[in-house]
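Open question from group meeting: does this chain pack into something compact, or does most of it stay loose? Before anyone orders reagents, we agreed to write out a predicted structure and look at it together. Recording both the input and the output here so the notebook holds the full record.
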Amino acid sequence: MFKQARKGLTGAMALLAVSGGFSSVHADELTISAKPVRQGIHMLVGRGGNVGVLTGKQGLLVIDDQYADHSQALNNALASMSDRPVEFLINTHWHSDHTGGNRFFGGMGAKIVAHENVRKRLVSGGEIAAFGLKVPPAEDEALPVMTYDQGMRFYWNGQSIELTHPNPAHTDGDTVVYFKEANVVHTGDLYFNGLFPFIDASSGGRIRGVIDAVDTVLARIDDKTLIIPGHGPLSKKSELQTYRDMLSTVADRVEQLKAAGKTRDEVIAAKPTAEFDKVWGDGFLTPDVWTGIVFDAI
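Structure tokens returned:
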């Protein structure tokens, strides 16, 4: 889903990006880079969602785990950072570019934690309708063993860590992770830094829910907060605010056109994203594809 790897993706290629394609990628061919964030927290970047890692003597706490066929490469990267095992693995939502490694790490003894709707969707499987993708039920080792409804706290490696669940936004099972002492937040796919975001309406996602969730994050952080987005580079509050304003402007325009009786194709033809395309439209979703996704998520 990154700009460099997904430029101009539409149709079947976009389906591969969401479903966890790249089945030919081997651990020795995949580069996962680690960026220090603050106070033992790192951001790992590969070809799936951004991974958050908290290191320390109690063991590793990991946020998301990319695609299934990236698991060994991710494990190698974690082993280079610490000789301690993965004790807790938090899923920010159910998509396979964030949960694909669950079976691998769950099988190694990591305790998987997520919102209860993530477990429900992994248990039953489902459909990502925007790409016509059928997702089979997950194996037992890949399922969260700890779930929550509205909020949950960890006290781990010297950090107070809060998990919060917004109203339906990117999906109906999103989690935002706040590290209090470090002043770091992992937003999951509520935030795509530098590219138009996917909103999975078939999994309960709503554009206004994303905007509301981002507003909640903005209200809780300050100018010194470091933000690990679901995709894209490490970020800060001012950049998240710019993202939020873009979302709101496009949502307003699409809502007005839809309320006026315009069809999906007519709304796409109206180019409601035009002023933002140069900055945000060179990534996983082309402007026209993203406009249709926003239309569906209203």
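Observations to bring back to the group:
The longest strand covers residues 184-192.
The two ends are 23 Å apart (CA to CA).
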